[in-house]
Amino acid sequence: MASSPDIHSSGKNSVKNLVSNYARSAVARIYGFLPSSDSRLFAVIQQLHGLRRSRRTKKPGLPLPLPSRSLETLTIFAQTSKALELLEEIQEHILSYLHCIQKSLCFWQSFAERTDARKAYFMVFERGPWAFAEETIHLIRGFLTEGSTIKRLSLSASASFCERISVLTHLQHCLAGFLAQFYMEIDLLGEAMTKDLERSLPLLLVSINNLFADLQQFIVSLPGDEKVLTYSLTNTERVDGSALALKFIRLPDVLQEKSQWTDIELQVATNMTRLNLQRLVAYLSQFISRQQKPSKMTLYWFRYTCGAVGLSLCSAWLLRHSSLTGSSDIDNWIREAKESTLAFWKDHVEMPLLSIRDELFETFRRRHKGVMELEEVQLTANSLHRMLLAFSEQTKGQIFPPDASDQELLEIVMSRYEKELTHPIQNLLGGELARAMLIQIQKLKLDIETAMLELNQILRANEINFAILAALPAFFLVLILVMLVRPWFTQGKGAEGRGRVARIQRRLLLVNVERQIMQYHICLEQGMDKDSQWMYGLVIYTLDRLYRAVERHARATGEWTSLRQDILDLGKPGLQKVDKLTITSHMVQVYDCLLPSPKRLL
Fold it and tell me: Packing angle between helix 560-571 and helix 529-557, nearest 10 degrees?
């Protein structure tokens, strides 16, 4: 009897093992139907996706500092053309990763300036669902034991932000220094390549190979213990998970000592340099992915989850009131909404527009009607004038001229009317009292018709205003819809977009170029070579962003040729500081795409 629990437990373990083995085999079968990462189908799909993405996002940036006439002569040779394409790829990749680093730095620096509550909110709600679950458990434990953990979360977030900022800044300095030396080497040997290609191109490739070796030493000293993938010397397969090693291939000493290369040797050097570039890209992709800013899905996952839950509840509520469950509520609501929309359209859109159309295109008909009303008033006025003239001539016993004023004749009638009122009954039967009263009635009729004519003219003159007032609700509704939809079409363009904000960002890019140029020359004057190199690399990076931002706008205004040359002049390392600052002040005052918004000039 004592051994029964052991038998029972062994039976449970055997059942668990059986279930786990069955689940493992089922998962293996499912994965068996899927293409592996090294399969041909997977490679083709990945290549097509990368090609489509590169076609969609690739945009020409700052060109190499080569003379324009040299490009036409150098591209005649096949190997030389491949070498130039490789140089363009190196510059494009370095500038792309510098841009990614800059965006991540701005993101983490802005988060580092947040309050403690906002930092704690980031640690809990903006790092994904797993971090939310872990931090929620830690918060509950902290409240039960310590009482409050907001300060702990804030300190943890600050330490994480500072570490990421330090690592990204160091990596930015490394890549910016590499870009500066790369740019200077091409600028130095650019003219020589047009004169002696067979000697200058090998020197350039040897210099670039040495730059890769120097970059390896700088990147090795990155702060922080990054536990990511390690790459071997010959491929980019995973070796272990302890660290990410970066090792470049050095050119053989035989090639470095030779002054002239054959086509085969040039091809070998080009392929080795391309392989070094691939290793650098693989390293930076893995390294920056752990330090870059989170994606929008990670940042706003909690809002998206709440929105999905709300949408699900709304869908369930709509399903409950739909015809699928035998309810006619949704049909009734749709019918009422349709009737309300039609009524709104008729009252605030159709009728006001028709009224404005009638007012604009039926002017002659209304003018004829107004002339007829004016003639009726004139007839009443003429009749009153004749009555006043006949009464005054009979009362005074003298003949008045036909053009006598109505006011003068009316004074005679009123004086006679006042005299007749002394004996109203007698004068009503045998005097002039009744005739004077009829004249006053005629005068009252004339005044009423004149007032009605003026009022009618006022109303006709304001019919367009009334129609516009009736259309105001529809106008405001359209305006609100445009304001809501406009950010969807304008977001993400940044300095390359249109409008006042894009102009401000382009001007800020030029301001950054001017500041970095001053810092670069200050470092040169103080003998800080390393700092001057990475500062010059940042100048090239900012010029590339400015080049991409202003190209489309400058081509539209016809000032691209001049502006492009000014940007290239700012990137020349041999140009003096005074000349560069003169160019920046000239650019910000002359070119339309860099001018302030027209609203600010008024």
Answer: 180
